[in-house]
């Protein structure tokens, strides 16, 4: 990702922050439509979870211009996901649902260049999380 893409994404995400919970709820509804088997993994309050997810993503996006710091954050989140039962393949459904929720939330502001920057950022986050789980996130048999 170049600096221009990072700036573009940060500006777009600043508009998600005030509606992070709503965006998160859109996301989870979509996620469980795409993959209903993921629903039982989430045992907590989904409103709280929605806020935590979008806040975490927002923090990572706002930190993309400080790669060392953000890589560490991603690693810590990835390590916690081993215990949650997250599998590498789940990142695909996650990515698709996030893309959709961001489209709904940002409308025209989710322009093609923003989408492209987001796709790169998501790949970076997902790869970092999978790598951080140190081989514990193994593919489903
Ligand atoms: C962009 C990728 C993701 C990010 C940024 C993310 C972020 C988070 C955050 C911030 C939490 C709150 C607890 C904590 O901080 O440890 C959480 C919990 C959780 N995440 Fe993720 N997550 C991601 C991908 C996934 C994927 C692919 C799965 C697969 C199923 C998943 C399943 C869960 C579950 C089950 C919980 C615990 C919910 C509960 O306790 O009820 N996450 N995630």
Q: What count of domains describes the coordinates?
A: 1
Radius of gyration, in Å, reads: 14 Å
Shape: globular
Class by SSE composition? mainly alpha
CATH class: Mainly Alpha
First-residue to last-residue Cα separation: 34 Å
Mean pLDDT: 92
Strand tally is 0
Give the name of the CATH architecture. Orthogonal Bundle
Unreliably modeled segments: none
List all distinct small molecules, including ions and cofactors, that are bound in this structure. protoporphyrin IX containing FE
**How does the major sheet shape up?**
none
Query: How many separate helices?
Result: 6
The CATH H-level superfamily is: Globins
Beta-strand content estimate: under 5%
In CATH terms, what is the fold-level topology? Answer: Globin-like
Describe this structure in words.
This protein is mostly helical and 141 residues long. The chain has one domain: Orthogonal Bundle (Globin-like). 71% of the residues lie in helices and 0% in strands. It is built from 6 helices and no strands. It has helices at 3-14, 20-34, 46-62, 67-84, 90-106, 112-132. Helix 1 (3-14) crosses helix 6 (112-132), helix 2 (20-34) packs across helix 3 and helix 4 packs across helix 6 (112-132). The radius of gyration is 14 Å and the shape is globular. The chain starts with a helix and ends in a 9-residue tail after the last helix. The model has no long low-confidence stretch (mean pLDDT 92). The site of protoporphyrin IX containing FE has 21 residues, from helix 3, helix 4, helix 5 and helix 6.
């Amino acid at each position: 990702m170049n600096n221009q893409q990072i700036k573009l994404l940060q500006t777009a995400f600043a508009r998600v922050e005030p509606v992070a919970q709503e965006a998160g709820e859109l996301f989870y509804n979509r996620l469980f439509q795409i993959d209903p088997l993921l629903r039982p993994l989430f045992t907590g309050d989904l409103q709280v979870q929605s806020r935590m997810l979008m806040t975490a993503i927002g923090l990572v996006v706002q930190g993309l211009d400080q790669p060392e710091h953000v890589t560490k954050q991603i690693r810590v989140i990835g390590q916690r996901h081993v215990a949650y039962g997250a599998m590498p393949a789940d990142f695909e459904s996650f990515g698709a649902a996030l893309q959709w929720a961001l489209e709904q939330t940002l409308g025209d502001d989710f322009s093609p260049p923003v989408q492209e920057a987001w796709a790169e950022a998501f790949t970076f986050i997902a790869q970092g999380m999978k790598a951080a789980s140190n081989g514990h996130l193994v593919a489903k048999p």
